[in-house]
């Protein structure tokens, strides 16, 4: 497909590679003009270009959209939004959606405006925001205004009763968020674990002297994830609101999600690379740095999650990047240590290596999971998440034969560890473009902080 009507030469031609979409792959060149994909097709059919990027033998994928990202916002995360963006860019992520968790006494719109400005000033990649749900009806009444401003997704946290405001939302506020968002075209994201029961079990585990993987496994069993997934689906269905279940981890919870999906409920399910690759043994080896919630599970859960990805039950993958330093994790007693781990920079490399190179999923399925489906669910497709004529020219170039080794020292987050230390990965990220401009060139970041733009999103509805 070409656009011979344009007289102006292309700004850039990406030639010689295999262009992968969710539907298939083709040997094709991509012509870029004014930041967008102007044409895709045989190289000889392309208009003249100012510059050519030779990607012979490489795979060309749409830029990764990470839908699940924490930065410092009413939290002690060690990365600011700009820091996360820098790390993300080195991992092939071109758009991220960050949780906009507000300070005490801030309105929802004030928080969204403030964090948007922070991103526009310092983010090197494009970004959007998820509004955070607090237990405050006046605050929830701002949901329609947030949707009008392009923020169409709302995060409900259920799992952390001990961690204060906005961390374990009582049902009436959860339901109000579903009700209001549902009536205005929004989508609610839920961290589905039963916080009050976890709180009770944490106290018991603490009294029994547990302080490691045993504490995590005792206080956050899969039953409390499954129970919350099931009830969240029913509440969302009653309210008529699309539901996005973040970081699903266990076979039991998967059973409940599959029941909902099979019944045609308007839900989508996400998991994360760490839940596809690591078990509770990571805590036994690394200690608190591997403390995440829901906890890392068992081998059988990992197998079930991959199968659900292959069969289409799980349709997106986010990093749940939640960056802390080793000291932040290890200084407090294990039971008090913050939940979360860095991961935005390893999202694509680990998924490519463990998924595509290991033969668990095709490169096409990878594109669905990390680009197309996030864009559709979040309401920015096909501007983002695809390489169609007219889409933003956001792409990553992978050498499928390349190798890399993950080290904390090689990462660009302020966090000083990685859950994947020493992992030898197949597939190497070489270049990326964001809106037609080089973002990564030979693995080096070549854009400045502030290049990233806020991406307003349309009300969409979760179902894919
Ligand atoms: Zn998270």
3D structure, described in words:
The protein has 464 residues and is of the alpha/beta class. The protein has a domain at 63-378: Metal-dependent hydrolases (TIM Barrel). Helix content is 33%, strand content 21%. The chain contains 15 helices and 19 strands. It has helices at 81-90, 108-122, 137-140, 143-148, 171-183, 195-207, 213-219, 222-239, 251-262, 273-277, 281-286, 299-311, 326-330, 347-357, 363-378, and strands at residues 12-15, 18-20, 25-27, 29-33, 36-41, 52-54, 59-62, 64-69, 93-100, 126-132, 153-157, 187-191, 243-245, 267-271, 316-317, 395-405, 424-434, 437-441, 444-445. The strands form three sheets. Strands 8-9-10-11-12-13-14-15 form an eight-stranded parallel sheet. Strands 3-2-7-16-17-18-19 form a seven-stranded mixed sheet, with helices on one face. A hairpin with a 2-residue loop joins β18 (437-441) and β19. α8 (222-239) packs parallel to α9 (251-262). The two termini are 27 Å apart. The mean pLDDT is 96.
Give the CA-CA distance, first to last residue. Answer: 27 Å
Instruction: Estimate the helix proportion, in percent.
Output: 25-40%
How many strand segments? Answer: 19
Q: What is the CA-based Rg, rounded?
A: 21 Å
Number of helices: 15
Fourth-tier CATH superfamily name of the domain at 63-378: Metal-dependent hydrolases
């Amino acid at each position: 497909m070409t656009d011979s009507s344009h007289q102006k030469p292309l700004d850039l031609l990406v030639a010689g590679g295999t262009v992968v979409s969710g539907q298939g792959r083709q040997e094709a060149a991509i012509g870029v003009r004014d930041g967008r994909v102007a044409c895709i097709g045989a190289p000889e059919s392309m208009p003249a270009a100012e510059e050519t990027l030779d990607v012979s033998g490489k795979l060309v994928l749409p830029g990764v959209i990470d839908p699940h990202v924490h930065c410092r916002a009413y939290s002690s995360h060690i990365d600011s939004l700009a820091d996360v963006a820098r790390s993300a860019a080195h991992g092939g992520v071109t758009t991220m959606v960050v949780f906009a968790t507000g300070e005490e006494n801030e309105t929802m719109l004030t928080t969204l405006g403030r964090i948007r400005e922070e991103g526009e000033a310092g983010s090197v990649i494009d970004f959007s925001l998820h509004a955070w749900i607090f237990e405050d009806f006046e605050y929830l009444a701002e949901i329609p205004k947030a949707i009008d401003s392009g923020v169409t997704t709302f995060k409900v946290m259920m799992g952390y009763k001990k961690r204060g405001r906005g961390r374990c939302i009582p049902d009436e506020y959860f339901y109000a968020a579903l009700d209001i968002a549902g009536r205005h075209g929004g989508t609610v994201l839920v961290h589905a674990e039963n916080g009050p029961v976890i709180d009770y079990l944490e106290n018991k585990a603490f009294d029994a002297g547990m302080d490691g993987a045993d504490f995590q496994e005792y206080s956050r069993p899969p039953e409390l994830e499954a129970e919350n997934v099931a009830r969240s689906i029913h509440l969302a269905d009653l309210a008529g609101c699309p539901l996005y279940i973040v970081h699903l981890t266990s076979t039991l919870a998967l059973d409940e999600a599959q029941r909902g999906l099979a019944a045609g409920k308007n839900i989508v399910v996400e998991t994360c690379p760490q839940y596809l690759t690591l078990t509770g043994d990571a805590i036994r080896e690394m200690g608190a740095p591997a403390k995440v919630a829901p906890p890392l599970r068992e081998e059988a859960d990992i197998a079930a999650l991959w199968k659900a990805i292959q069969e289409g039950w799980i349709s997106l993958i986010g990093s749940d990047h939640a960056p802390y330093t080793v000291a932040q994790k290890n200084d407090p007693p294990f039971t008090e240590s913050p939940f979360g781990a860095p991961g935005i920079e390893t999202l694509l490399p680990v998924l490519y290596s463990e998924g595509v190179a290991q033969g668990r999923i095709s490169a096409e399925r990878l594109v669905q999971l990390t680009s197309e489906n996030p864009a559709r669910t979040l309401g920015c497709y096909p501007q983002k998440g695809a390489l169609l004529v007219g889409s933003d020219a956001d792409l990553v170039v992978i050498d499928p034969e390349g190798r890399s080794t993950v080290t904390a020292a090689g990462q660009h987050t302020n966090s000083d560890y990685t859950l994947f230390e020493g992992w030898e990965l197949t597939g190497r990220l070489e270049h990326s473009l964001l809106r037609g401009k080089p973002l990564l060139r030979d693995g080096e970041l070549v854009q400045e902080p502030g290049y990233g733009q806020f991406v307003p999103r349309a009300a969409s509805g979760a179902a894919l």
